[in-house]
Design goal:
The complex is a heterodimer of chains A (208) and B (219). By secondary structure, chain A is mostly helical. Chain A has helices at residues 23-34, 38-60, 65-79, 90-111, 119-126, 134-152, 156-167, 172-179, 183-207. Chain B has 219 residues and is mostly helical. Chain B has one domain. Chain B is built from 7 helices and no strands. In chain B, α2 packs antiparallel against α5 (129-148). The chains are: A mainly alpha (208), B mainly alpha (219). The interface between A and B is large, with 54 and 40 residues.
């Protein structure tokens, strides 16, 4: 059966989260994505970004967490993309998933004692006299960038596990709740991520 | 941090064809098939109550069983709707009128028995056999229902888990009523409705953990 579907142009992406923009096309793109069309899926996810960023900014504020939140929503959307019912409005489906994830992130943030707000104070406590000179700071920044690149190159599940359990230092239960994964699969993902990082850090360290 | 564009590239590369769930009514029927099988096994083990033939002549009792059945059916249909992100969360209210009517019928039954039997209608039996039977029957059918809607974890975990417990336990209560007899309405209210309410409350409290434990599965 052949179907002729229009590809909405990229410039028709929503300017604001509440704009009713090409929801039918989004539904059609998701239907094709469910059938295994990766190109339609990539196009859809790119078109959703402005909407998701707007929603995340209104919920969490514009900060370093915003892009992480958008990526988390995309991961959840990916894991339950089969629940979209072709022919039904796409936006309510997307909004339910996105809002639920953002609420969970807000909850996790409120529970976290080392919230981003006091990051500067913690940094000052670690380096009270600003002893590091420009060279040390540059080297430290480069090392941090290398680690970030290595973490970012991991598969989504492993990256999520390492980010939750090692970087954000969430407990296993918190991480399981936040990601929707079991504690066991998180542990396995974290273990594999550490193994992969050991190799990749060596690689990234060489080509930096 | 790897850019969102890279993530989208990875997700698109992983865009295998997925199996869409059938419509909620069809999934409800499938699950009911399992419930009937489990209840049939349970009844085969305990046997039908001896006074079952006379049930049509006791409309009050018949209404209690019928309303428990209706509550369970409505809750099951609501589960499959609420678990889908694209469906309204208002489906969660569907079983409430039936549950309210069921509890009211049990309450009125207590009053009626108290008027006719006096103090003996209010005697408490502390053998929670019914509650135990309901919990044991609810467990397998509830777990299967939970697995059928495991994708609800990132969607509406609390409402879905509570509705799963309501569907499983209300239908189990109706099934157990076909085996157990000779109870006062107060005991039915206490052990049947009490078991259902406890299971719903426990599921609602543990909803997030339950779904985190089983995970969303692979689409």
């Amino acid at each position: 059966m052949s179907r002729v579907l229009r590809f909405p142009s990229m410039d028709r992406a929503p300017a604001a989260p509440d704009d009713e923009v090409c929801p039918n096309d989004w539904g059609e793109l998701m239907t094709r994505a469910q059938d295994g069309d990766g190109a339609a899926y990539a196009l859809l996810l790119h078109q959703l970004l402005p909407w998701l960023r707007g929603l995340a900014a209104r919920t969490l504020g514009r900060g370093p967490e915003l892009e992480d939140a958008v990526q988390e929503i995309l991961l959840v959307l990916h894991s339950i993309r089969h629940t979209y019912e072709p022919g039904r409005p796409f936006r309510p489906w997307l909004a339910t998933i996105a809002r639920r994830r953002l609420i969970d992130l807000l909850r996790a943030r409120s529970r976290r004692p080392d919230d981003a707000a006091d990051t500067d104070e913690r940094a000052l406590a670690v380096h009270p006299d600003g002893a590091d000179g420009p060279a040390e700071l540059a080297e430290s920044a480069q090392r941090a960038a290398t680690v970030r690149r290595a973490v970012a190159s991991l598969p989504p599940r492993q990256r999520e596990a390492i980010r939750r359990l090692k970087l954000a230092e969430d407990s296993l239960d918190e991480a399981a709740r936040a990601t929707g994964q079991t504690a066991g699969s998180l542990k396995v993902a974290c273990h594999r991520a550490l193994q992969a990082l050991a190799g990749r850090l060596h690689l990234f360290g060489k080509d930096r | 941090m790897r850019s969102t564009d890279d993530l989208i590239g990875r997700l698109a590369a992983d865009a295998r064809p997925v199996r869409r769930p059938p419509p909620p009514w069809r999934r409800t029927l499938r699950w009911l098939g399992l419930v009937l099988a489990v209840l049939a096994l349970s009844i085969a083990g305990h046997g039908l109550r001896p006074d079952l033939a006379g049930l049509p002549s006791r409309p009050w009792e018949l209404a209690e069983i019928g309303l428990a059945l209706a509550t369970g059916l409505a809750a099951a249909l609501a589960v499959f709707h609420v678990a889908l992100p694209g469906r309204s969360s208002r489906w969660a209210w569907l079983p409430l009128p039936f549950a309210a009517a069921w509890i009211s019928t049990l309450g009125l039954g207590c009053l009626g028995e108290w008027r006719t039997l006096g103090e003996s209608a209010l005697a408490l039996h502390l053998d929670p056999e019914c509650a135990r039977a309901i919990a044991l029957t609810s467990l397998p059918v509830g777990l299967v229902l939970l697995l059928m809607v495991r994708h609800a974890g990132p969607v509406r975990p609390v409402a879905t888990a509570a509705l799963v417990a309501l569907a499983a336990s209300a239908l189990s209560s109706a099934g157990v009523s076909l085996s157990h007899s000779g109870e006062t309405a107060l005991m039915v209210l206490l052990w049947h409705a009490g078991a259902v309410a406890s299971l719903c409350l426990g599921s609602a409290v543990l909803g997030r953990r339950l779904f985190a434990w089983i995970g969303p599965g692979t689409p």
